[in-house]
Q: What sequence folds into this?
């Protein structure tokens, strides 16, 4: 996504999944009539969404040149893209009213996540700038594991660790948790995740080479292979984002101000 020599297309989506859409829907509360920087933009679908929701301009950056090449097919008035390492934001000529870093911090090289936050802070418009940082909740994404189960993640935070990391850089911050409120889905998902077969699949999937190969399979085939095709299909209505509810969340969101 950013600052990785092996940028992973399988970690991006050509279309907004329901989970990703929920994050950008939340971010759009803060981006209307604002200049926006979208870090780790991937194919640019989230950046385009923010523009369509009323942002004045959106500039998307990603470390992977081949991904940005495809994102540039979406360029239009107010929407631009460029290849840039997130640790080198100072190379940008502009500051921004809002900077969005959705599921980026967990991909940073070891020890560099604070540097990312400092770069974001320095690139915000003085006094009024807002940064929206989202990341997975370690309790949900890698339960009972000392290291991330996702091979593309170098670090995952518990709620306490995430809040401490954000507060070390930003004076003002509010925290939100994203939850799945479809109880039927959660019951079936928990049953699937506790099965021996799924645990084996999870272990196999922790290898980067396996994920790279699986990325070429159609999504419906991947879902059948790991058993997720049996789960109810989620919609926008199945996600809820609430303040100060990080412990039980699937994703954590920090809204940061200078």
A:
């Amino acid at each position: 996504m950013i600052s990785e020599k092996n940028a992973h297309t399988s970690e991006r989506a050509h279309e907004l999944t329901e989970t990703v859409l929920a994050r950008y829907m939340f971010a759009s509360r803060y981006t209307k009539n604002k200049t926006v920087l979208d870090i780790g933009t991937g194919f640019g679908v989230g950046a385009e969404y923010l523009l369509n929701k009323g942002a004045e301009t959106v500039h998307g950056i990603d470390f992977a040149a081949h991904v940005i090449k495809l994102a540039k097919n979406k360029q239009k008035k107010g929407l631009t893209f460029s290849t840039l390492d997130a640790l080198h934001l100072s190379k940008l000529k502009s500051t921004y009213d809002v900077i969005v870093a959705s599921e980026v911090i967990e991909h940073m090289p070891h020890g560099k996540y604070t540097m990312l936050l400092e770069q974001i802070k320095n690139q915000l418009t003085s006094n009024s700038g807002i940064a929206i940082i989202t990341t997975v909740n370690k309790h949900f994404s890698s339960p009972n594991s000392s290291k991330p189960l996702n091979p593309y993640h170098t670090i995952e935070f518990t709620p306490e660790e995430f809040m401490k990391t954000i507060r070390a850089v930003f004076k003002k911050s509010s925290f939100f948790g994203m939850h799945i409120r479809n109880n039927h889905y959660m019951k079936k998902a928990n049953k699937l995740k506790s099965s021996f077969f799924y645990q084996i699949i999870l272990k196999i999937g922790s290898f980067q080479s396996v994920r790279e190969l699986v990325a070429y399979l159609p999504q419906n085939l991947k879902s059948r292979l790991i058993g997720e095709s049996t789960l109810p299909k989620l919609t926008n209505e199945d996600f809820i984002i609430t303040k100060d509810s990080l412990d039980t969340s699937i994703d954590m969101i920090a809204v940061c101000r200078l």
